[in-house]
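::Encoded backbone::
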Amino acid sequence: MDTEPKEVVGPLDGKFEFKKNKDGTLNKQAVICTLCKKEFSFHRSTSSLKYHINAKHAFVGSSSSGARPGGLVQTTLTEGRALSKSISENLTQKIAKWIAKDCRPINIVEDKGLAEVLQVASRDAFYKPPSRGTVMTKIHDLYKTEKKKKEEDLAVADYVALTGDHWTSVSNNNYLGVTAHHITKTWELKSFALTTMKTEERHFAEACAEQFLTVARKWEIEGKVTTIGTDSARNMIAAARLLTFEHMPCIAHILQRSITVSLSDSGFVHALSKSRKIVGHFKHSPANTAELQAQQAALGQKQEPLVQDVPTRWNSTVDMVKRLNRNQAAIKATLDQQQHKLIMLTPPEWDKVQRLETLLEPCRYVTEILGGEAYVSCSVVLPALCHLRRVMEVSDEDPAYVVRFKTAFKEDLASRQEKTNNTWLKLATALDPRFKDLKTLPKSEREEVWTTLGGMLHEQSPRRSPQTSEDGPPKKKMSLLLQMCSDSDSDEEVQPGRDIHRYRAEPCISMEDCPLQWWSAHSGAHDKLALLARKYLATPASTVPCERLFSVAGHIVQKKRSALLSENVNQLVCLSNWLKEE
């Protein structure tokens, strides 16, 4: 009878049914597609039937949960076609790249959840993620490929600046991080990691100097390195003296150290001590935090947690006092409803906290500006420090404790600035078209900078002459020094050469403009100075690039991954840094 149920083919339920003979019996040697009524031979194998479904009915299935208009439904997982070898290989490559780029643990490929996601995405119910060994092999290959690109970049660079610092992992292993910075022929500033190498020796000056040399030789840039930036630790300063490179102390470290010294010798100590205890009262109790958030909502303020300052975290003190000042009303209302042993800030102490925010905000701004690595920062140091000196000028309205802070800050910063590489900073400032008027320097020091640049151009000319001869006949020798301006007190006095004079005659560009774009447009008119600009403007003002490198390393070398081989740590940290540039 037609009403009697028809038998279907097992793994393809609902897609095929056995053909009926005229006498009503089933012909188990033939099946009919229920979707297109096409007849197929059947000999226990379903391969041809699966191929027909995938080829002709890829978006049609039997699951009622995915039904579409007209009776069409989503295909089930078991109906997907197996991935080809090339697609599977590409997927494995992407998984390895994702793990390296985003600091994922290698054993994530063993997660069942990831396997299910990949099966749904690939429409292959039998797809299995690559093994840990396969992923590590791909990561090693990816590291070699990306490292070769970086070697090619450094091979064509004229000058390279380095920054370096040490870091201790959770497994108590010490690593040296080194980053490279250079300006390309197209005037793009490139910054990337060179290594995060494990070190066994004690951090004596000789050992540190040898480690830096080892990195430079490994990357074949020893003859191109101009400066090496480090913190102001004594061993690093002593190591820099042993090297032929110029030393650039981290200006951000110097600035933060001056802030710490000034705070310890001012009238803010007691107010800060009370502030830390108030913040700790809320940070250490979820119930107190919830009550504070309720008060913030009642006052129409943004619900935000308080911030505790940390001695080793830059700008954490200003972040703490800003949150306190912003949530002063909510804090008072919350504490008034609680029984606590806190000693509240008095109105004069709240005034101190507000004044401290005003004092530290410019320091935070300068620290962030000097910590960039995607733009020129070395030439900004002297203008930034000049700005801070003006901000810290004592006024008649300042209370005694503010006067003490400003005086201590300026004195400490001045003493530390004397120990920096001021010659390099002055030349970098002069080669930046934003600050080439050198108004941040005393008038008595400005001509010395231009004289030094003129001497460099004089030394550079014989070395550059063979290269310029390829473009045309050599230029005539410059005449004697240009005549001085009639006004002997003018800022535009005494030029050592025509190139310097033409460059100084160019108008300064806006603070918002990029100096590298200016040099890209004017390098033809100032070809000799352009080479010096590539040299001096590539140096970073701080060792923040290394600090960022260690932040990445901290995500990789965790408690559960403390046994990672040092070679793998180096490759994973460098790859994460390199791939994020893309």
In short: Residues 1-5, 61-79, 463-496 have pLDDT under 50 and may be disordered. The longest helix spans residues 443-468. The longest strand covers residues 189-199.
